[in-house]
């Protein structure tokens, strides 16, 4: 139990942590992976290489210390992280390892400034946070296992179908090798997938949004091939290059607290690039449900060759009350209908959008979501009707 002294001590150490910056979390991860290399199987090592994970952990620790006497403020972030942890199959005993390396990192970096009082306060504070995550994650694991088609831990699936959707995006449909059902999910949720890339030192676990509606039998994800630096797209490119129909992968049950919410309001889905995957799942789900309220779908990508699901979305106008537009960054073909050239400018379609009552869901690169959120706010859409999540290590904007 945290005492007032612990709380005061943790808050008093915030400036020390802030001045050390991400050196703390970088040191922490180096230390942990040196002493517990088995955890490389669990953590996304590409996010280590880019520095995004140490930055995210540092921000999380700073936010926790800042709000330690009013943790309700962090409920949304805690739920988002807990869902993500379950897709990695994080277990209670791993919190003790992380806690040990965090405390030892503080001792090593702060030296004499890391007094016994500070150690006691941070140990208690870490334990409080770990207990919160362990409880929420334990409940999510149990709830998933109890559902029809549910399971706990990794389950082996076979690739039933591999299908190109555009120049860079390929879909993979997975069925369980045990022949059982699979648990339903909310459109917008993702799967944790574990693979062992060729010649790789450790397993890799990644999250991919489910890209079509739940059907009880199979799951589909749609993956973008990453061009450029090798450290990006280790798993995505392995799936593209090495995983074929008939091959097996390990999956955790669907997770994620960012998903479509039925609210009897018009829906506006706005995506860019491969961020269209959850939007496609939402559209397919609404179509299967016979949804009749107006839906608007706005999508941005580089060019026609990279426009996945274009025909599929056009076909959904048969079943849904759907209006859709596309922005092609590198230029629109002449006479193309519902297609604009350049980056997405909402002013071009603002008059048809339900600005005063609609729910707006955004998905795509962070820069794109920031760009669109700003436009929505300036068009008068209230903040509480703009929904998005940052894929990858947690980040606010
Ligand atoms: N469930 C989720 O939240 C998912 C999120 N994503 C995210 O989507 C992103 C990947 O998208 P890519 O296909 O690589 O996109 P991309 O880099 O090919 O960009 C696609 C389009 O986004 C627009 N865009 C990009 N940056 C912009 C900016 N700063 N301002 C205005 N417009 C901008 C442009 O129109 C561009 O053509 C990743 O960040 C990934 O994490 C992807 C899948 C699922």
Automatic annotation (TrEMBL):
Name of the encoding gene: hmpA
Gene3D superfamilies xrefs: Globins, Nucleotide-binding domain of ferredoxin-NADP reductase (FNR) module, Translation factors
Keyword list, A-Z: Detoxification, FAD, Flavoprotein, Heme, Iron, Metal-binding, NAD, NADP, Oxidoreductase, Oxygen transport, Transport
Record organism: Rhodanobacter aciditrophus
Globin domain sequence ranges: 1-138
Domain remarks: Consists of two distinct domains; an N-terminal heme-containing oxygen-binding domain and a C-terminal reductase domain with binding sites for FAD and NAD(P)H.
Residues involved in FAD binding: 190, 206-209, 390-393
Catalysed reaction, written as an equation: 2 nitric oxide + NADPH + 2 O2 = 2 nitrate + NADP(+) + H(+); 2 nitric oxide + NADH + 2 O2 = 2 nitrate + NAD(+) + H(+)
Cofactor(s) of this protein: heme b; FAD
Gene Ontology MF, one: nitric oxide dioxygenase NAD(P)H activity
Family membership noted in the UniProt record: Belongs to the globin family. Two-domain flavohemoproteins subfamily.
Native organism taxonomy: Bacteria, Pseudomonadati, Pseudomonadota, Gammaproteobacteria, Lysobacterales
Binding site for heme b: 85
Active site: 95, 137
Protein name in UniProt: Flavohemoprotein
Site label Influences the redox potential of the prosthetic heme and FAD groups, positions: 84, 389
Cofactor, how bound (note): Binds 1 heme b (iron(II)-protoporphyrin IX) group per subunit.
Function recorded in the entry: Is involved in NO detoxification in an aerobic process, termed nitric oxide dioxygenase (NOD) reaction that utilizes O(2) and NAD(P)H to convert NO to nitrate, which protects the bacterium from various noxious nitrogen compounds. Therefore, plays a central role in the inducible response to nitrosative stress.
